[in-house]
Every structure is written in C-alpha cells, then in structure tokens.
Design a protein that fits this description.
With 302 residues, this protein is mainly α. It is built from 12 helices and no strands.
Length: 302
C-alpha cells in the first residue's frame, strides 16, 4: 500500500485505492486515531468486503466465498503479522524522539513494503479464485469502477493550475502528518508546500501509473478467462503482476520509482527535522498507543 509520516513511515502525496484487503487494512491502521484502532481493525473485514463489492458487484455465491476468504485472511494476519508490528512500533517510538535521516526513513519504508508484499501474497489464492469466477459483465463493472475512482482522483488532485495541484497534495501530506504530530504551524506547513512543489512526481504521474496497472489487471482477468486458466496459473499470473507493481522491470518506470521513493524519504526526514520536541513526543505517544492496541488485538487471537 506507499505511506506517511515520521521515522517509521514515508510521506508521499501518492494516493491509491487498492483492491487488496490487506492494503485496505493497512490504510485503516495508518489513518485511524489511536483510540479507535482496535475497533477499526475488528471491522476491517467488513470494510474490505464493501470495497471489493463496489468494484466487482458480487453475486450471491461469490459474496459468500469472498466474505469467508477475507475472514480467513484476517485470522491469519492477526495471528502471524500483528506480533511482527509490535517490535517495529517499539523501535519507532524511540526513533520518533530523535532526528530521522532519509536513509532511516527509507529503511522503515522498506519494512512496511515487506509487510505489504507478504500480505498480498497470502491473499493471492483467494484473489485467483475470485478473478476466475468473474463474468464479462463484472469485468465491465470493474472498469466503470476504476473510471469513477480516477475521476475522483482528478477532482481531488488535478486542478487546472500547478499551484492548486501542489496545494491539494500538500493538504493531503499535512493531514496525515498531523495524525502523528498534531497541528503543524505555519512555517512547517510552508515547508511541506515547498517540498511538494520540488518533488520529482506529481498527481498526473500518479494517475498515469495507476491507470497502467488498472489496465494490466483487467487485461490479465480477460486473458485468464479466455485461456480457461487453472487456479495455479491464475496465482502465478497475479504474483507476476504484483511483482511488477513493486519492482517495475522496465525503464523508465524502474528509475522513476526509485527516484520517487528517495524523494519521499527526504520529505519525511526534513519534515521530522522541523518538528518541535513536543510534536515528537506526541508522535511517540501515538505510536505507543498503537503498540498497546496491537498487543490487545494479538491476545484476542489466542
């Protein structure tokens, strides 16, 4: 799921709407206030189903299977992944109180991406079952859903002027940063705006890349259907597609992705450097609260 804020998360203006239940869950954890993390996680399976149903418009049989698959995925995640997140948060609490270099920000981002890769990989068998069951009308429904989400993205981040586009991206970054630090002052907000304007990517880049992967996903579904692919073939094809998303194999996408990541790590570091001691304390406390909630959630799995 590319993320946000302080020593443990990398700030970028990139906004994606993933079809993966795992990434939906990570968004819930990343954006929910600490007082509702447990509630959000316990309801995340319903949110994941709702989002997937909006995209695919399930029939009754698919609905039952997808709900069951999501429930099993979250059981696995609670049992095996939450324990991994706790020590990460313990480290992040300490790191939030000290300077964060771009290298450290990228190191933490790599850890988060590793969780995402593992979470998606575990979801692949259920996703293969789903894509093999889709009808032509459902594939068309997916394309319409993609078009609508792209229109929403344009409305939010692709204003007519470059200044307005940068302002929209900066508002997103500031909103996420304030989850950790509390309200940013004028100088900090101006710093974010200037850093956003200097980034080597913009909302148009983000839209174009997401459209590429949307088209490839739809093409893959149609290809698997036409070939009457087996479950094993569908799993392999999905894993290859996700691998390409994380590690673009061709230029200029590969170099461009690395450049974007480096810029996001630099922004994370520079904003953290601008925060006050009180703001760093607030970020550490937020992470501490999340750690406590995850420990409780993990106990509920046993």
């Amino acid at each position: 799921m590319n993320q946000t804020a302080k020593g443990s998360m990398t700030i970028t203006p990139r906004v994606t709407r993933s079809l993966s239940a795992s990434l939906l869950m990570m968004v819930v954890l990343a954006l929910a206030a600490c007082s509702v993390v447990r509630l959000a996680y316990n309801q995340a399976d319903h949110l994941a189903y709702w989002q997937l149903n909006r995209a695919f418009d399930f029939n009754d049989e698919q609905s039952v299977k997808v709900k069951g698959a999501i429930r099993q995925w979250f059981q696995w995640h609670r049992r095996t992944q939450l324990p991994v997140y706790v020590p990460f948060l313990v480290r992040a609490e300490k790191e939030a109180l000290a300077p964060v270099s771009p290298a450290l920000a990228c190191e933490r981002r790599t850890e988060l991406e590793g969780w995402g890769r593992k979470a998606i990989d575990h979801a692949v068998p259920a996703m293969a079952d789903l894509v093999l069951s889709l009808s032509p009308d459902q594939i068309k429904h997916l394309e319409k859903h993609q078009a609508k989400t792209n229109d929403d993205f344009r409305d939010d981040y692709l204003e007519d002027s470059v200044e307005d586009r940068n302002e929209a991206a900066a508002k997103f970054v500031i909103k996420v940063a304030e989850i950790f630090y509390g309200r940013l002052d004028t100088a900090q907000r101006d710093h974010v705006k200037s850093e956003i304007a200097a980034l080597p990517l913009n909302a148009q880049n983000v839209l174009e890349e997401r459209q590429v992967y949307q088209r490839e996903f739809v093409q893959l579904i149609r290809k698997l259907s036409a070939q009457k692919a087996t479950q094993a073939q569908a799993q392999q094809a999905l894993r290859e597609l996700f691998q390409q998303f994380f590690d673009p194999p061709k230029e200029p996408l590969r170099s461009q992705r690395l450049q974007w990541i480096a810029a996001g790590c630099k922004l994370t570091s520079s904003l953290h450097q601008k925060t006050t001691h009180e703001q760093k304390e607030k970020a550490a406390q937020r992470l501490r609260d999340w750690e406590s909630d995850l420990r409780i959630l993990n106990k509920q799995a046993t």
